[in-house]
Amino acid sequence: MKYQRPKGTQDILPNESEKWQYVETVTRELLTKYRYQEIRTPIFESFEVFSRTSGETSDIVTKEMYDFYDKGKRHITLRPEGTAGVVRAFVENKLFAPEVQKPFKTFYMGPMFRYERPQSGRLRQFHQIGVEAFGSEEPALDVETIAMAVSLLKEFGLNNLKVALNTLGDAQTRQDYRQALVDYFTPFAAQLSDDSKVRLEKNPLRILDSKDPADQEIVENAPVILDYLTPEAKEHFTTVRSLLDALGIEYVVDTEMVRGLDYYNHTIFEIMSDSKAFGGKWTTVCAGGRYSGLVEQLGGPEMSGVGFGLGVERLLLILDAEEIQLPIDNRLDVYVVGIGEVTNEETLKLVQALRQQGLIADRDYLGRKPKGQFKSAARLNAKYTLTIGETELAEQRANLKNMDAKEEISVSLADLYTDFAAVAEKLN
To answer: Which residues bind L-histidine (predicted)?
Structure first.
């Protein structure tokens, strides 16, 4: 039997995993500047955490969730996105309490799961970096979130980006706009796709997000939400746009953008790249927005939030396609060459001691001849080699060689165990 990874998943192998580590490190450093702290929630949650928050008519709930009943007959779901689990943790751990600093800013990294057709940059197990900030309704926090996302992508070397912006307004806006969409789409009901016929009854806003070509033709002349904003919603959106202008962040307003989850309100955004990784078409790398009611739905007080999610696989595909070289550190400081079985114990002690001094060190574990060991050191781009044979062992010395300068000196083992850096200075 041939064992293979499940469809829609991938193995992240050495050399590739270093790229992931770099992305995670840079992200942590940047988000720390904005005072975001990491949260780690379970990979699986109760089904209701997502069915209540994502919306019963969303594709995630109706088509894509990996859900099952465990041995205790509990309905469990592998998380399809990060926000709902973070909100559940926020409520359960009472992070809304008055003594907790507001806005409460947190970020997460990890795998998500959706049962959909695997394609480039879209897997069934995919990885997401996300941020959430709770406890402030200020438009300035929306803008900070967008600015933070743009800064993060630019930190990785992506400069040709497009920020698409829209608003879903407040509750009254949504109610008025919903009725306008029902009035518009009802005469076309027979022509709508089966999915959109259901959405027309439950959530007509979802029709705007349909991928069906026939639906998209009908959507072209649909009412625009900007015409239904309440004065308060219009003021919020105007302020967001004004503050983006003040920060010099260019954007386009896309009135057909609704996002794939039902919990958004007011500001929503997508940040896209036209990388050749996706044929030069504008493809979303990062997206998010403001939401309210989510904390309340999961048992907490009425409190709004704002955040975004970034797809790591898509980001890495773009970095590769754009040939952006990540500063991955694969250095090897010292390779210890042992000649003869008698040196086995000493070379093992020596590489361990060098590592405890903060160096990256290695030795042979395959019984290679000296020539083979030196080839390994060269292939691994070792900066130094330390060679110990029977004679050197008897004299408690080793031969230290700078692989670039090709210079070599004899050094005391005792000095190497004490301070390798001071010994190496003699070759520099």
So the answer is: 81-83, 114, 128, 132, 259, 263-264
- Residue spans of the domains in the chain: they are 17-170+230-321, 332-427
Q: Six-digit token pair at 27?
A: 């992200």
Contact 65, 273 (CB under 8 A): no
Terminal Cα distance for the chain, rounded: 56
| β pairing state of 382-388 and 397-402 | antiparallel
Give the span between the Cα atoms of 3 and 8, in whole angstroms.
15
Maximum distance among all Cα pairs of the chain, rounded to whole angstroms: 95
pLDDT in the model for residue 262 = 61
Residues within the annotated binding site?
81-83, 114, 128, 132, 259, 263-264
Q: What does each C-alpha distance from 179 to 167, 293, 315 come to in angstroms? A: 17, 21, 38
CATH class, range 17-170+230-321: alpha beta
C-alpha 153: how far from its chain's center? 11
- Pairing label, strands 37-38, 104-113: parallel
Amino acid present at 379: R
Q: How far is CA 428 from the centre of its chain?
A: 41
Q: Could you tell me which of 306, 341, 340 has the C-alpha nearest to residue 143?
A: 306
Residue 390, by phi and psi: left (phi above 0), alpha (psi -120 to 50) or beta?
Answer: alpha
What is the structure's pLDDT at 396? 96
Compute and round to an integer the Cα radius of gyration of the chain: 28
Distance CA 101, CA 95 (A): 9
The domain made up of 332-427 has a fold known as: Rossmann fold (3.40.50)
- Determine contact, residues 6/123, Cβ cutoff 8 Å: no
**pLDDT means per 10 residues in the chain (428 residues)?**
93 94 96 97 94 67 86 95 94 95 96 89 92 96 97 93 94 89 91 88 83 88 92 96 97 82 82 89 92 90 95 94 87 96 96 97 96 96 96 96 93 96 89
Burial grade of 241 (CB within 10 A; 0-12, 13-18, 19 or more): middle
Q: What is the DSSP letter of 293?
A: S
The alpha carbon dihedral of 142, 145, 149, 152 has a sign of positive
CA distances in angstroms from 38 to 103, 108, 132, 307, listed in the order given: 15, 6, 10, 14
Rounded Cα distance between 186 and 139, Å, is: 35
Cβ atoms of residues 382 and 400 within 8 Å: no
Cβ-based neighbour number of residue 190 at 10 Å: 6
Annotated binding site for L-histidine: 81-83, 114, 128, 132, 259, 263-264
